[in-house]
């Protein structure tokens, strides 16, 4: 600020000097002008000095005001920081007081623990003294007892342990027997309840499949067209479908005979289309049969998908769905295989739900348990094992695979679902009306089964049960031992296999009962 004043003064002085110089040069012209100029220069110089002094004072005032403002701000900031420092100091003092109190409490507790420790040591010393005294007295008494009983301590302990062991075994055996008897009774009652509830809750159909199909025609004139010249049409139809076409004197009917329901259905539909079209000759027959077979395959897939939707089964491999559809055209002893499998699936789901198991997995295993019967290729394996292999191939759950393979006891059961599938299969196949069999032949087969078992030595009575699926043999306990009973069961099963024809399997149970009778007089 001071330098600015000096610069202004210097400028004004320069102006005055300039004016003097101008006046000097103009002196010769007019002296008065020179004097006026000098006077004006003096005036200008005084005004410049006055302005400079005023400007200097203003700058000094501004500087003082700024200094005072900065000083005030600094003091305010310093006061705030001082207040914060005082507050923190107060907090530290409070924490120090709290820590001091806690330290005093810790010291008191340490003193109390030390006192308790001293008391405990004194008690332990007293206990040790009493224990030593007790050991001495006990040793003395044991020595006295050994002298009296002529037994050492180890020998007496062994005898006591043996006595207690025998007594414990006797009580345990009795207790275990009671528990097992009660468990068997409860299990039997529960199993019967579950099976009865399942059968009552499952609605079944009593339809029976035949091995022949009847194709109705409007008039006997059409029979001649179907037969063809020298029988070429009927031979072509039989060769294309693999069934036997029987054209006899039956009015307005042609019989289609064959063990494969799929072939019979193909032949029936083909005949229907040929009769409607009217063009019946070998080439046309082959063309219609080929189309019909394709339609049947599509229908098989549709039946499989519809069955899965009906039962609520999801995620089956397409090949398994196709095999489920093929069950519709397969029968076992007159019982439709698809109907049987659906029935088994529903029974399995009900039983599994009653037992708290996975009902969906049980239903899946029940539907697929006979899948090996509809495998299109010839196989030497039993249908249960073949079905299990197919289920494994198409990534089914291991429990489902085991249930399929074990439902005829070909393999060992490893899950709770397996016996459920086996029981459901037996219920579905053994119920009245499920499978076709002439009553006389059925009764004769059961009678022959009982007579066969009665032909063995030592057999007193024999009963065919569960529609011929179980044979119970009662033997004479005096003439047949336990080992002989086992051999007798095997011999009866071998003779049944060689001499009789029967569906499924037959369980032979040999019962040997010893009865001792005495009379009190």
UniProtKB/TrEMBL annotation:
Where is the major localization of this protein?
membrane
UniProt keyword annotation of Hydrolase present: yes
- Transmembrane helix as UniProt keyword: yes
Q: Which Gene3D superfamilies did the record assign?
A: Hypothetical protein af1432, K Homology domain, type 1
Show the PROSITE patterns listed in the entry.
HD (PS51831), KH_TYPE_1 (PS50084)
Give the first-level EC class, as a single word.
Answer: hydrolase
Per the record, the similarity remark reads:
Belongs to the RNase Y family.
Question: What protein is this chain from?
Answer: Ribonuclease Y
According to its UniProt entry, this protein's organism is Belliella calami
The taxonomic lineage of its organism, from the top, reads: Bacteria, Pseudomonadati, Bacteroidota, Cytophagia, Cytophagales
């Amino acid at each position: 600020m001071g330098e600015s004043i000096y610069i202004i003064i210097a400028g004004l002085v320069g102006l005055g000097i300039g004016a003097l110089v101008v006046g000097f040069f103009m002196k010769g012209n007019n002296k008065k002008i020179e004097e006026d100029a000098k006077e004006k220069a003096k005036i200008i110089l005084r005004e410049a000095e006055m302005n400079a002094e005023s400007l200097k004072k203003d700058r000094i005032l501004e500087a003082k005001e700024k200094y005072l403002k900065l000083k005030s701000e600094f003091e305010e900031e310093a006061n705030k920081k001082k207040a914060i420092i005082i507050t923190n100091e107060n907090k530290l003092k409070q924490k120090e007081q709290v820590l001091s109190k806690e330290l005093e409490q810790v010291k008191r507790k340490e003193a109390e623990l030390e006192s308790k420790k001293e008391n405990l040591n004194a008690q332990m010393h007293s206990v040790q003294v009493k224990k030593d005294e007790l050991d001495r007295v006990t040793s003395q008494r044991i020595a006295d007892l050994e002298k009296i009983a002529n037994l050492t301590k180890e020998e007496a302990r062994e005898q006591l342990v043996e006595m207690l062991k025998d007594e414990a075994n006797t009580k345990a055996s009795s207790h275990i027997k009671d528990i097992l008897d009660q468990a068997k009774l409860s299990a039997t009652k529960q199993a019967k309840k579950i099976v009865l509830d399942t059968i009552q809750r499952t609605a079944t159909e009593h339809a029976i499949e035949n091995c022949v199909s009847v194709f109705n025609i409007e008039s006997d004139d059409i029979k001649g067209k179907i037969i063809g010249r020298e029988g070429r049409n009927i031979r072509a139809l039989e060769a294309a479908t693999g069934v036997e076409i029987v054209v006899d004197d039956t009015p307005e009917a042609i019989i289609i005979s064959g063990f494969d329901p799929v072939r019979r259905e193909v032949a029936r539909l083909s005949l229907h289309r040929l009769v409607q079209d009217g063009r019946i000759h070998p080439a046309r027959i082959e063309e219609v049969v080929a189309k019909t077979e394709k339609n049947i395959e599509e229908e098989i897939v549709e039946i499989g998908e519809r069955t899965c939707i009906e039962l609520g089964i999801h995620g089956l491999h397409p090949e398994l769905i196709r095999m489920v559809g093929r069950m519709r055209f397969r029968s076992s002893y007159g019982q439709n295989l698809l109907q049987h499998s659906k029935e088994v699936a529903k029974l399995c789901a009900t039983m599994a739900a009653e037992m708290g198991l996975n009902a969906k997995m049980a239903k899946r295993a029940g539907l697929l348990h006979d899948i090996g019967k509809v495998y299109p290729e010839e196989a030497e394996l039993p249908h249960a094992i073949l079905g299990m292999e197919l289920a494994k191939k198409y990534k089914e759950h291991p429990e489902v695979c085991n249930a399929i393979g074990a439902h005829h006891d070909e393999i060992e059961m490893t899950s709770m679902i397996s016996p459920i599938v086996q029981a459901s299969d037996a219920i579905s196949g053994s119920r009245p009306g499920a499978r076709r069999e002439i009553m006389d032949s059925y009764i004769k087969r059961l009678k022959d089964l009982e007579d066969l078992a009665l032909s063995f030595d030592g057999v007193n009575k024999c009963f065919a049960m569960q529609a011929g699926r179980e044979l119970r043999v009662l033997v004479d306990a005096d003439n047949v031992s336990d080992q002989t009973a086992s051999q007798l069961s095997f011999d009866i099963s071998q003779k049944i296999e060689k001499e009789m024809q029967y569906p499924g399997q037959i369980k032979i149970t040999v019962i040997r009962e010893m009865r001792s009778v005495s009379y009190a007089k």
